[in-house]
Structure formats: C-alpha cells, structure tokens
Fold this protein.
Amino acid sequence: MVEEKLLERGVEVEVLDSDEMRTHLCKGLGFSKEDRDTNIRRIGYVAKLLARNGACAITAAISPYREIRDEVRKGVQERSIFVEAYLECPLDKLVERDAKGLYKKAISGEIENFTGVPDPYEPPLKPEVVVHTGDEPEQQSCARILKTLEMLKLVPEVTGDDYAAAEEAAVAARLRDLGYLG
Amino acid sequence: MVEEKLLERGVEVEVLDSDEMRTHLCKGLGFSKEDRDTNIRRIGYVAKLLARNGACAITAAISPYREIRDEVRKGVQERSIFVEAYLECPLDKLVERDAKGLYKKAISGEIENFTGVPDPYEPPLKPEVVVHTGDEPEQQSCARILKTLEMLKLVPEVTGDDYAAAEEAAVAARLRDLGYLG
C-alpha cells in the first residue's frame, strides 16, 4: 500500500521483497542466523546502491536482528537517508492470522528457525516510525509512514487525507525526539 | 575512465565491479561455469534494478559466457537500455600485461577455471560497441564508448573531443547495422 501511494505521488520506488531477493541474490541461503544476516546484508547493499543513485527502495523483509539492521542503516546513511519502519504486531495475532500458513508449520516443528517461533525478534530501539498492524487499520499505518516520509522531505506533501492529518503531531514528536526536524 | 567522463557530464553512475560484488552479493561463489553464471546473473539483476530506476550502471565483470550475457540483456531491456561494450584484446597481450599476476598463476595451474587459460571466452556477436584495448589508446576506446552512448541518447553530447569526432562515422555505422538510429 505504501508503494502504491508513493507511485501516486510520482515517487519511483523499488520494493526489495525478501522472496524475490532470495530467488535472485540469495539462492541457497537458509534461515539460520548467519544466512538471514547475509540475506539482509545483500538486500541492504542493493538498497544502498539504489538510494545513492536517487531511487527509493522499500525493503520488505523480515529482519529480526538489530545488529544487522543497524549495520545496513550505517551503510545507507553514508550518502542517503534510512528510515526504519517498525511493523509491530503481537505474536498471538500473527499466529491467529497466519497468512501463509507458516506459523502452523513452525509451531508443529515442520519448519525451523522461524522468526517468533522459536527464533527471536529484536524490536528496533529507535525506529523512525512504528505502526501497529495488529490493531489499527492499514490506511492509518500507511498514512503514518507517508507522513514520516513527508516530514523528512523525502516525498511531496499531500493534503486532504484525514488519517494523515490525525498522525501529524505524533509523527512530528517522534522525529523531534530522534533529532530530526532541527 | 568511462565512469569519470560520465560523472564529468553530470551522469550519475554506479560501477558494479566484480570484486566488490563478490564481496557483497556473491560470497562463497567460485569460478566454475555455474558459479560464474550466478555471479553475472546477480550483477545483472542489480544493474536492472538501478537502470529501471533511472540510474546508470556499468558492469565491470568478466562475463565469458554468451548465453548469460544475453539473458541479462533481455532482463534489462524490459524497461531500460542495455549497451554491451566488448573490450577485445588478444590473449598474448593479456598474458604479457598480466596486471594482477593472475595469468602467470593460471598458466602454472595454480589457479583453475581462469578465463582464457584454460577456460573459454565467447565473444559477443552483436555488441553495441567494440574497443581494442590491445592496440589503441585508452582515450580512443573511451571516446568510442561515450560516442555510442551519445548516439543512443543516453548521455548528453560533448563537442571538442578529437577522438570522439574521429569515431563518429564508425559508431553510427555500427549502431545502424544493429537496428538503432531508426
């Protein structure tokens, strides 16, 4: 949804989807911590190349380990801007939803090294934006992310979105806390 | 040198160097045909992402197999332009030059699967531009590549380069043969 909204605003955007990356850049990698780290490093590397050439990359990958996320952030920030969006959702909701049927398999032990069951997920400490996908409408999550990008002057501003207007103060407060917005 | 000249003309350019790619995206891959193919596919994939986001990617990698080069070309051409530059040089000159000392090791058998010794190199059949790095000055090779990019309307034209002026007719003839230039 964020991708669509960005395209509507005329922002060229490339979604670096984890499944696609695993096909093209990471064939043979599994889901151990080491392999996950390599996967995220590669996605981060491609995002860095895109970003420093003026493109906008959305990395849509489960990246459970804080250290690697911070390493990727550092690389991107050499020449571009890195915005970490934390999509927070309680584990029980994820299990209940189980969109791809993977939690069921993880719980039964059919698949191993699954984030959440039993592998850890280390939440970010200072993400630029947090959305609560378990208990808020998708439009609201999306509006908060876009408002964050607007305030960071990364995308053109659009008026008339009720959700966006409601998010403005909270987004500004978070960004100010993180040292943005002068 | 092509990179420098492009930057001088204000073209943002990303060089996808084989060694760097092997560090970031292809760790663990060797030099067998299969591993080389995977390496080139990955470089091609990143070039495609960059190109379709409006950036210019130079792939600086030894890519000995025609089939994979053509596969990458096809992918890039879905939404961008692919220009194949064939840097032709007789093997004996390469061995004589041996910039990295690798030919010596290949000949002695210390390294295996080296392109040229004993592995094959399949020259492209229809490259957009051919330069003869064995017997022409680097400036001339560079000018021919840039003139090709100019004629394909990929970079702004620059006048006053003697080499470029001398190359113009030959570049135009080649591109016309390949079906470019209407």
